[in-house]
Design a protein that fits this description.
Length: 94
């Protein structure tokens, strides 16, 4: 019920914005002055964590590839899972 109300209000606001050049100019100014700087700040804050997550994903992929080279998951899935989990536990202790 509330979401429908917000949807209708947003639709009305967008329709008004599309037809009113003065509102378009004010909206553009607000976006330029408030939204863009906030987005830039948020990106700068999130970027190191994203890089860290990327590095962790690459490292995990390399670890799994190493375990696959030593233990074929198709031949012995139990041994593969055991070795992979051991590798990740060791990495978590460091």
């Amino acid at each position: 019920m509330v979401s429908k109300l917000f949807y209708k209000l947003a639709k009305l606001a967008v329709g008004e914005l599309a037809q009113n050049p003065e509102l378009q100019a004010r909206a553009a100014k607000i976006v330029k002055e408030r939204v863009v700087p906030g987005a830039i700040t948020g990106w700068e804050k999130a970027k190191p964590k994203l890089e860290q997550a990327k590095d962790a994903a690459v490292s995990a992929t390399k670890d799994v590839a190493e375990v696959v080279r030593k233990n074929d998951p198709m031949e012995d899935p139990k041994k593969f899972l055991s070795e992979a989990s051991r590798k990740f536990r060791e990495k978590g202790k460091r």
